[in-house]
Amino acid sequence: MQDRTRRSADADITLPMVPLRDIVVFPNTMVPFVVGRRASLLAVECALAGDKQVFLSTQRNAKVDNPGAEEINSVGTIATIAQHLRLPNGNVKLLVHGNARARVLEIDEDPEGFLRVVLKELDRPTESTPELQEHVTRVGQLFERYMKYSPGLPYETMLSTVKITDPGRLADTIAAHLPVSIEEKQALLETTVVPHRLSEVERALEAEIEKLRVDKKISNRVKKQMEKAQKEYYLNEKIKAIQQELGRKDERVNEIEEFRQKIEQAKMPDDAKEKALQELKRLEVMPPVSAEATVSRNYLEWLLAVPWAKKSRELADIKRAERILEEDHHGLEKIKERILEFLAVRRLVRKMKGSILCFVGPPGVGKTSLARSIARATGREFVRLSLGGVRDEAEIRGHRRTYIGAFPGQIIQMMKKAGTRNPIFLLDEVDKMAADFRGDPSAALLEVLDPEQNHAFLDHYLDVEYDLSDVMFIATANIMHTIPPALRDRMEVIRIAGYTLQEKLAIAQRYLVPKQIKQHGLQNEQISFEDEAIVEIAERYTREAGVRNLEREIASICRKIARRVVAGNAEKPMVLTAVRVVELLGVPQYHPQREAERTPEVGVATGLAWTETGGEILTTEATRMPGRGKVTLTGQLGEVMQESAQAALSYIRTRAEEFGIDPSFYRKYDLHVHVPEGAIPKDGPSAGITMATAIASLLTGVPIRGDVAMTGEITLRGKVLPIGGVKEKVLAAYRFGTKTIILPRENERDLAEIPDDIRKAMTFHLVHDMDQVLDLALAGPIRTPQLPAADTGAGDPRPSGGPVTH
Ligand SMILES: Nc1ncnc2c1ncn2[C@@H]1O[C@H](COP(=O)(O)OP(=O)(O)OP(=O)(O)O)[C@@H](O)[C@H]1O
Ligand SMILES: [Mg+2]
Question: Is the CB of 364 within 6 Å of ligand 1?
């Protein structure tokens, strides 16, 4: 057949034409198709009657039923009908073999009713060059790759195709298999220059391969995901089947149902309930063993765990409250009174604004235990949140649920712990809270404490409003000034100063000793402490405003006795005397008496300070060395304290002549004022007179009495101004064994706070200017100094401020 085509390549051929709707037939390919249109059937009949050749050309628009000449592409393929089969419906199924591409020169309608065309063949033999052969090989290999990606084509097609060496034939065969559009195929058919056609086919192949490659990648991924989901589904079903087989009900349904019931019973506010049901709906459709289901379940459990409705029945009986406070704590009369007043008012006014108690005082004075006692007295639950070191807002308010392993904040966690919505909520150590880059926890706390806002507290994790307005918040702190001011404003401050020895004794005998005996599994009959034993412990083994260490030492003794009881060598009953205490506790750490009996020294003054841990004795030393008037201050002194040292110095300079000090001393000497225990930061103006006394003593050479302690602010003109913390300071001096105290006159009213027994045992000098201080503190009259060292002979004090003994 090829022969025939070649032979008549230049001659015009006339053939019946069959227009094709949506296929392009290429030379050298076998194509089956069905013919049904009347004109086409007539053309086929005509061909079958002759040499079985037809001209096949694709119409431009597949939808046109009776295409005219202009609607059919002018380039098509001459084909031989290899087989034909008449179908029952009158159609004919053909299998044709393409012979050669040809162009229509003329087109006529045959009288019988089909189209007859006059054609010119287009295929020309191509000259074979090495480049072309190489191109053929390349395209062949490309086709092979394409076949790998496209499993739809039979293997034999590939084998027979890659064997083709004729470039035109190869291009046509591949073009017939490419899944490109009819337009593209037609364009390939019309490309008569063989190398061009081969290049076009190569390009189309590459594009197809790329498409298939991407497709495959995506479908692989999709497949993997599908497989995973299927696996999970399969396993879940299997678990269900196993459980059913074991006779259990479907646990999943159970779980969801259980949640639903709990949500219904939780008496949540509407929005919380809605949120819970929403979450439950999500949980229902999640695979039960997935990570997100766990997150969802946790969240629901939290929502259900916080107390929404449950309340303790509050005990209204103030008499009872009073009895309980009395039972739990010794002394603290004023404080108990304030607490009872507070409780009474709270009963009368349902929601009191800014009604948060804050206990401020040194460690171990019973702040935490008072709060616990209030809970007992009012019948509420008690929870305690330690804010020491809390520096992250999220600790108060929680992390958003988007965080893996997120939790509600401490407020909500504590509410869960309380189990009721009206507990006593102790915010311990509000003064130790810190702020850093993660946000300021005090801002969150403000919201918690603000009665205007706390009925709708929003925890990041819960994400629904929670009502804190029934909670009674109580705060504790050792010092006031590190509490953020906004927070301080919201609180009603109650100060607890610390205990005297008598009070400590009573607390120990009535509370600490019985408590420790019980805790150590001993019997009250087995052991008793004599008063002098307690005094011994308090004075020589502890130095504190509170009773924490006292309690610890008592515990330590109980432990030792418990050991003897177990070993069977404890005498019964065991009476603890001061001597036994020393035996059991070892060498005492403090020597109160000896310290107070310090000999007078030049430049060393005893001050009184107020610190977080209560009152303190603060020794102040001054020395000088040749120099040029530089003043050095050491011992971690704050700014205010430095200023008051400068004021003290200026005062001395203005009075230099009167005191018999060389007025040009500051040109000859450098001064150094040091306040020992340098590790503890100190601040405040109350050391003013102490420093002035130390400097005056140094420069005059008159020693300072060792048994006098002082506190007061100094002005440039030598006036003495009042200071704070008198009670704590006096108690500290008393503990230290110093019985004579110099105080600013304006602090006289503070003496009323000091327990009678101590007040009676001490001498207070109330002063209003520095001259009086020096008269009282220096161990001799001021006189011209004899440099380099003054003699330290102690002289009689000249009490000119007048001793005040209350
Ligand atoms: N007036 C008192 N009567 C009876 N016991 C007391 C009294 N004061 C303190 N205590 C007891 O002393 C111990 C320490 O008290 P608590 O823990 O309440 O001190 P705190 O003031 O909270 O100290 P911190 O500032 O260190 O937290 C407790 O066992 C407490 O019961
Ligand atoms: Mg405490």
Answer: yes
268-296: pLDDT as tens digits: 999 999 999 999 998 888 877 778 888 89
Which H helix or E strand runs over 27? none
Mean pLDDT computed over 443-468: 88
For residue 329, report the distance from its CA to the centre of ligand 1, in Å: 9
Q: Ligand 2 centroid vs 476 CA: distance in angstroms?
A: 7
The C-alpha atoms of residue 498 and residue 362 are separated, in whole angstroms, by 7
Cα–Cα distance for residue pair 465/284, rounded to 1 Å: 25
In whole angstroms, give the CA distance from residue 604 to residue 690: 9
* 324 Cβ neighbours under 8 A, 6+ residues apart: 373, 376, 377
- Span 498-509, pLDDT tens digits: 888 888 999 999
Write the single-letter amino acid at 240: K
Position 352 scores a pLDDT of: 56
What does the pLDDT average to over 674-684?
67
With helix as H, strand as E and coil as C, how does 382-395 read?
A: EEEEECCCCCCHHH
385 lines ligand 1 (CB under 6 A): no
Q: Is 52 labeled as catalytic in the residue annotation?
A: no
CA distance 362 to 429: 11
Tell me the CA–centroid distance for residue 45 and ligand 1, in Å.
Answer: 117
Nearest to 705 by CA among 799, 788, 593: 799
Alpha carbon nearest to ligand 1 atom 18, residue:
366
Give 691-735 pLDDT, tens digit per residue: 999 999 998 889 999 889 999 999 988 899 999 889 888 988 887
Catalytic residue among 442, 686, 697, 727: 686
Q: Which two tokens stand for residue 39?
A: 């004109």
Amino acid at 29: T
Q: In sequence order, which residues have a C-beta less than 8 Å from that of residue 729 and are 6 or more positions away?
A: 608, 609, 610, 615, 711
Taking the C-alpha atoms of residue 240 and residue 250, their distance in angstroms, rounded to an integer, is 7
Rg (CA), the chain: 52
Average pLDDT, the chain: 85
| Cα 96 to the center of its chain, rounded Å | 77
Kind and range of the H or E run holding 84: strand 75-86
DSSP letters spanning 626-683: ESSS-EEEESSB-HHHHHHHHHHHHHHHHTTTTTT--TTHHHHEEEEEE-S-TTS-B-
Residue whose CB lies within 8 A of the most ligand 1 atoms, among 367, 369, 500, for a mutation test: 369
Residue of the nearest CA to atom 6 in ligand 1? 366
Tell me the mean pLDDT in the region 545-549.
90
Q: Are 426 and 476 in contact (CB under 8 A)?
A: yes
729 tagged catalytic: yes
**pLDDT-based confidence at 4, cuts 50/70/90?**
very low
What gap in Å lies between CA 384 and CA 511, rounded to an integer?
A: 22
Q: Write the DSSP symbol of residue 705.
A: P
Confidence of residue 10 (pLDDT cuts 50, 70, 90): low
Give me 114's structure tokens: 């089909």
The closest of 21, 121, 37 to 79, measured between CA atoms, is 121
Binned at pLDDT 50, 70 and 90, residue 344 comes out as confident
Give dist(CA 123, CA 6) in Å, integer.
Answer: 9
